[in-house]
Design goal:
By secondary structure, the protein is α+β, with helices and mostly antiparallel strands. Among the domains are: 308 residues, Aminopeptidase, CATH 3.40.630; 116 residues, Alpha-Beta Plaits, CATH 3.30.70. The chain contains 14 helices and 22 strands. It has an 8-stranded mixed β-sheet with strand order 1-2-6-3-7-18-8-17, sandwiched between helices. It has a 4-stranded antiparallel β-sheet with strand order 12-14-10-15, covered by helices on one side. The chain has a two-stranded antiparallel sheet with strand order 4-5. Helix 5 crosses helix 13 and helix 8 packs antiparallel against helix 9.
Length: 755
């Protein structure tokens, strides 16, 4: 219900508008927000004389960058559900329903929320729907969308334009159209609820989704509250809502303090004395009285309201008579007012009543007019702190060029403010914003040089030609509502993981795993029988100088078994020259093979990544075999003596499971001659243990991290990466910006999702 425009101020200098509109609002105007206003206090003390009312406590907000990181993770799922969201929008647009008649729409919302795992309640306040999703300790955030349409004939020419008809509250058959964007509000509401339900690892708290009926009649929110919205389902810590408007599609508009005007609708019935049109002197014509009232009301704003104040008086309905040659007995008017303060609103109501009664008396009407207030809504006054927090999160996610601050309130009205309990001693803080919906080509072609001139010529809300840009508007609405919820629900701690999807950390680059005395086994490998099976690594004892390295504690290390019959005090023979051991990590950059008994084997294993504990090598002594399960190594060639290495494999031929040498580098030296297939250096951040002269390399320390994937065509027999490990791209991948098919996204934040 927004037949107003906050940007209709002529004479503004030309600005760069296309998704870059910037406004500067004086700080005192942002901070001096008027207190909330309700039906209960209308007509009492003027609003500006009120002391500042108590404002509800705003829950703690997550850092905007952290909220944006959560948003990046959540919105990675948007492409999966967007076709369904778009389909729901098109269906609702083709099948609109009038206020208090939203049965089909409510059923669709309830079904969607139920499939997403919400606790669903229907019939709240008539046709309202409430969905509750509890996800641990945290604040309760209310997301609201309205569902009803308008009695208006659509003339957009869209292939999914509405041809529906309905019966209004007076029993009249009328066309029905979603001319105020409530179809988009509902589709974005269920879409955001679905996204948050699928990414519960990113947030903690309770999500309350409210699909509200009857916003156009300004009584849907109050009806839901009267039906126990907060007493039955819990009082939220903050309420969030949005509305689409005529700004360029994808633009998000915020304003602290008053963002929407107060509204009042008066129904007026004029009584005359009818008769034949040929003898008007024998009648009291109510049509003439009504016409005089309409003309006189135009002087209220022009002559009775200060030029520094905003006021609107509109006669939207005038009905009288049935035939041209009959003077009717009655005339019927409906008058709507808008104001930003209670003082102005009170004056408008009293002026209308004074003029109506005076004109009837001046015409000699024998009966006093009937004046009934049928609708009334207070100002929508955003909590300044909450608005700043949500706007900051939107800027961190969308970018500064997509988020603006409105210089003036909309003169449209909403009943969303009722959810803030304006008459309560402890009101609920709320934030309400706008999402642009005008197609960019339509905006560019609109006449006018300034944004205000363009907006004046574009069809806006409540127009038969209002046709939002479908995809961009829906994507922006989905992201804006999701980011609003994550502003308060987003998890503060880093490194969260649930349901196999890692949260984006608050860091720019991956970090090595922390060292610990005895880290637990990673879950990337399933325990197998001891015969050659790979096992989780749990830790190892401290190094001892002068002795062999101790075996790891717990499960045995993935390594090849010794050959049958080999003595336990003799190490197994090395593999062919230059071939690394299956399942081993590559050596650190710039280091050769580790010497063993003055002669380094060709398959020297380089130091492992950080986090895998190990013992220290012993000077001058061979490494003992590991305890527990036999080591998984290839047996030596038949007949080869145990103390003589086997002949090398063909030069440059890699062994299965090994990494080929990086381009331009030689092989790791073995007996002063490096093999041709030396392995590449490990990824950055993987510390290498310094080998001890005369001893084998130390086993890995701490928990393993993700090793780089092998080049295409080379099998990889190392265990899969543990949780929280981020693959490090190769040089070719860094240059091309691509990753392997099996790699997970890097462990640093992606750039913000763009529409």
């Amino acid at each position: 219900m927004l037949p107003g425009n906050p940007l209709m101020r002529p004479g503004t200098p030309r600005v760069s508008w296309y998704l870059r509109l910037r406004f500067v609002i004086p700080r005192e105007r942002i901070g001096a927000a008027a207190p909330r206003w309700s039906m209960a206090n209308r007509g009492t003390t003027p609003l500006r004389s009120h002391p500042r009312k108590k404002v509800g406590t705003v829950p703690h907000a997550v850092d905007p960058q952290r909220a944006a990181e959560h948003g990046n993770v959540v919105m990675r799922l948007v492409d999966e559900i967007f076709p369904l969201v778009e389909g729901m929008y098109v269906d609702l647009h083709k099948n609109p329903e009038l206020s208090h008649q939203e049965h089909r729409t409510a059923s669709a919302v309830a079904g969607w929320l139920d499939r997403a795992g919400f606790e669903v309640h229907t019939g709240v306040g008539g046709t309202g729907v409430v969905g509750i999703l509890r996800n641990g300790e945290g604040p309760t955030v209310l997301l609201r969308g309205d569902m009803d349409a308008l009695p208006l004939e659509e003339k957009t020419g869209l292939p999914y334009a509405s041809t529906a008809r309905g019966v209004d509250e007076n029993g009249n058959d009328v066309p029905v159209m979603h001319a105020c964007g409530h179809d988009a509000h509902t589709a974005c509401l269920v879409g955001a609820a679905d996204l948050l339900a699928d990414a519960r690892q990113e947030w903690r708290g309770t999500l309350m989704v409210v699909a509200q009926p009857a916003e156009e009649t300004i009584d849907g929110a109050a009806t839901m509250l009267q039906d126990g919205l907060y007493t039955r389902f819990g009082r939220p810590d903050i309420a969030l809502g949005q509305h689409i408007g005529p700004q360029p599609a994808g633009m998000i508009s915020h304003r602290a303090g008053v963002i929407l005007a107060a509204s009042s609708t008066l129904r007026i019935r004029i009584f005359g004395d009818g008769g034949h049109a040929s003898q008007p002197h024998t009648t009291v014509d109510p049509v003439v009285i009504a016409a005089s009232i309409v003309t006189r009301l135009q002087s209220v704003v022009a002559r009775e309201v200060s030029p520094s104040e905003m006021a609107v008086v509109t006669v939207g309905t005038l009905q009288a008579g049935t035939k041209a040659n009959i003077i009717p007995d009655e005339a019927y008017l409906e008058v709507n007012t808008r104001a930003l303060t209670d003082t102005v609103g009170q004056h408008l109501d009293s002026a209308i009543e004074r003029i109506v009664r005076a004109e009837a008396a001046a015409a000699g009407a024998a009966r006093e007019p009937e004046i009934t207030r049928t609708q009334e809504a207070g100002v929508t006054c955003n909590d300044a702190e909450a608005t700043e927090q949500v706007a900051s999160a939107h800027r961190a996610y969308f970018g500064d060029g997509y988020v603006i601050d409105l210089p003036e309130p909309f003169t449209g009205s909403e009943d969303f403010g009722e959810l803030g309990l304006p008459g309560d001693p402890d009101p609920v803080p709320y934030a309400f914003w706008f999402v642009g919906a005008t197609p960019h080509d339509v905006w560019e072609e609109a006449p006018g040089e300034t944004p205000y001139e363009k907006l004046a010529s574009l069809p806006g809300n409540h127009s038969s030609y209002f046709a939002p840009e479908r995809e961009l508007t829906l994507r922006a609405g989905l992201a804006a509502l999701t980011m609003g919820a994550l502003t308060y629900l987003g998890r503060v701690e880093t490194g969260t993981e649930t349901a196999g999807q890692a949260a984006v950390p608050a860091m720019d680059h991956p970090q090595p795993a922390p060292e610990g005395p005895a880290p637990g086994p990673f879950t990337g490998v399933t325990a197998q029988p001891a015969t050659g099976a790979s096992q989780p690594i749990t830790g190892a004892g401290p190094p001892v100088d002068g002795g062999p390295p101790p075996p790891p504690e717990g499960a045995p290390v993935d390594a090849p078994p010794p050959p049958e019959g080999a003595p336990m005090d003799v190490p197994p023979p090395p593999s062919p020259e230059g071939a690394p051991v299956e399942g081993s990590y590559p050596p650190p950059p710039g280091e050769g093979a580790v010497p063993v008994s003055q002669e380094p084997p060709a398959d020297a294993v380089p130091p492992p990544p950080p986090g895998v504990p190990s013992g220290a090598p012993v000077d001058g002594g061979p490494p003992p075999p590991p305890e527990g399960a036999p080591v998984d190594a290839p047996p030596p060639p038949e007949g080869a003596p145990m103390d003589v290495p086997p002949p090398p494999s063909p030069e440059g031929a890699p062994v299965e499971g090994s990494y080929p040498p990086p381009p331009g580098e030689g092989a790791v030296p073995v007996s002063q001659e490096p093999p041709a297939d030396a392995v590449p250096p490990p990824p950055p951040g993987v510390p290498s243990g310094a080998p001890v002269d005369g001893g084998p390399p130390p086993p890995p320390e701490g928990a393993p991290v993700d090793a780089p994937p092998p080049p295409e065509g080379a099998p990889m027999d190392v265990p899969p990466p543990p949780p929280y490990a981020a693959p490090y791209p190769s040089e070719e991948q860094q240059e091309s910006g691509t990753r392997g098919e099996d790699e997970q996204p890097p462990h640093y934040p992606d750039p913000p999702y763009r529409l």
